[in-house]
């Protein structure tokens, strides 16, 4: 298979691991910086160039699109999809999951557990909005934040109101959630590939912190998931339309609650904590889907030679 990894940085652990896993399996692989891909869009004539050369003949791409380049990165990925290149995570699915509000609406619509969430625009509605949510503590988070940035714990109603006013003043999009205290600063990162959980870890926030992100100093260890947790993670990835996903869950009194579904989950933390070859699992899945597509194309009536009558 001719594989590309769409990534801004070749030196990143995750990128490097995917390249190594692909090479070990005998695939041809290259890393493409999405910001160096440029596109020509014309009816039935999509074209892409990379650093001055035509890019064509790719079988599959693994997108690793950082949040700072979501718009351009997903445009490049969409172009590759239109050029018949397979991606486990389609551009639309990435956009869906990056928007936490939209993702929560879609997950809740399918009956998946999540922290109760409220959203409002007008300051005149703040009091009623907080009544809709229930008593503090609340968690207020930026709609498109990552790595724990812009996730704030407001311990009282007045703190909650102040943060909401401050975010509004900055014209930021944000959500307000019930705080799941019984999770005790820990969450579960479930790594889903092709509808299976291939690895899972429990992340624990450092002392004095409620966010368990490894970027915020959290620690991680392998964990075995309950059946309900495994099913929730698989369903959440499916609802988002992602075949490679890092699904974050909180353990609560009412069962697993989905916090977010990551479309470019990091490999370093999960491989380090579990000792599992997650990069290999991703490459194997992409190769399997590519082979299946090739078979389907070969068997399609369009490609079968019609016998003369
Ligand atoms: N409603 C909540 N209740 C308790 N802890 C939460 C809640 N929301 C987030 N957290 C903690 O904060 C961390 C970061 O929140 P998350 O929504 O995943 O944002 P990010 O995209 O920045 O990682 C989570 O991993 C979890 O530990
Ligand atoms: Mg998170």
Walkthrough of the structure:
With 309 residues, this protein is α+β, with helices and mostly antiparallel strands. It folds into three domains: 2-87, Rossmann fold, CATH 3.40.50; 116-179, Dna Ligase, domain 1 (2-Layer Sandwich); 182-265, 2-Layer Sandwich (D-amino Acid Aminotransferase, Chain A, domain 1). It is 35% helix and 25% strand. The protein has helices spanning 13-24, 70-82, 91-98, 100-109, 126-133, 157-169, 227-240, 268-274, 278-299; strands at residues 2-6, 28-32, 37-40, 47-50, 53-54, 60-63, 117-118, 138-142, 151-154, 174-178, 186-193, 196-204, 219-222, 244-252, 255-262. The strands form four sheets. The protein has a five-stranded antiparallel β-sheet, sandwiched between helices. Strands 7-10-8-9 form a four-stranded antiparallel β-sheet, sandwiched between helices. A three-stranded parallel β-sheet has the order 2-1-6, with helices on both faces. A hairpin with a 2-residue loop joins strand 11 (186-193) and strand 12 (196-204). Helix 1 packs across helix 9 (278-299) and helix 2 packs antiparallel against helix 3. The model has no long low-confidence stretch (mean pLDDT 95). The site of magnesium ion has 4 residues, from strand 15.
Work out the strand percent: 25-35%
Helical residues, percent: 25-40%
End-to-end Cα distance: 37 Å
Output mean pLDDT: 95
**Quaternary structure of the protein:** single chain
Using DSSP, what is the number of strands? 15
- SSE pattern: EHEEEEEHHHEHEEHEEEEHEEHH
Please identify the top-level CATH class of the largest domain. Alpha Beta
Enzyme class: ligase
InterPro entries: ATP-grasp (IPR011761), ATP-grasp_RimK-type (IPR013651), ATP_grasp_subdomain_1 (IPR013815), RimK (IPR023533), Rimk_N (IPR041107), Rp_bS6_RimK/Lys_biosynth_LsyX (IPR004666)
Binding site for ATP: 141, 178-179, 187, 211-213
Binding site for Mn(2+) 1: 248, 260
């Amino acid at each position: 298979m001719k594989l590309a990894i769409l990534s801004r940085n070749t030196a990143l652990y995750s990128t490097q691991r995917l390249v190594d896993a692909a090479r070990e399996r005998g695939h041809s692989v290259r890393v493409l910086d999405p910001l160096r891909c440029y596109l020509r869009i014309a009816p039935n004539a999509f074209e892409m160039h990379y650093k001055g050369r035509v890019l064509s003949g790719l079988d599959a791409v693994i997108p690793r699109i950082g949040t700072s380049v979501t718009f351009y990165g997903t445009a490049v990925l969409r172009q590759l999809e239109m050029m018949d290149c397979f991606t486990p995570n389609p551009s639309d699915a990435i956009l869906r999951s990056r928007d936490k509000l939209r993702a929560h609406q879609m997950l809740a619509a399918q009956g998946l557990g999540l922290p109760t969430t409220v959203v409002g625009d007008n300051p005149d509605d703040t009091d009623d909005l907080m009544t809709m949510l229930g008593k503090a503590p609340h968690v207020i988070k930026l709609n498109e934040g990552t790595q724990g940035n812009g996730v704030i714990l407001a311990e009282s109603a007045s703190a909650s109101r102040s943060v909401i006013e401050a975010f509004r003043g900055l014209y930021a999009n944000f959500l307000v959630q019930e705080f799941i205290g019984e999770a005790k600063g820990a969450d579960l990162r479930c790594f889903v590939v092709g509808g299976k959980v291939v690895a899972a870890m429990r992340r624990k926030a450092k002392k004095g912190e409620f966010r368990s992100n490894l970027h915020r100093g959290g620690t991680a260890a392998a964990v075995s998931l309950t059946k309900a947790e495994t099913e929730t993670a698989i369903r959440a990835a499916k609802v988002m339309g992602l075949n490679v996903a890092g699904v974050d869950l909180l353990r609560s009194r009412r069962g697993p609650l989905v916090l977010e579904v990551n479309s470019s989950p990091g490999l370093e933390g999960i491989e380090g904590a579990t000792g599992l070859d997650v990069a290999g699992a991703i490459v194997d899945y992409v190769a399997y889907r590519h082979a299946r597509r090739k078979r389907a194309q070969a068997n399609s009536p369009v490609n079968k030679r019609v016998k003369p009558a």
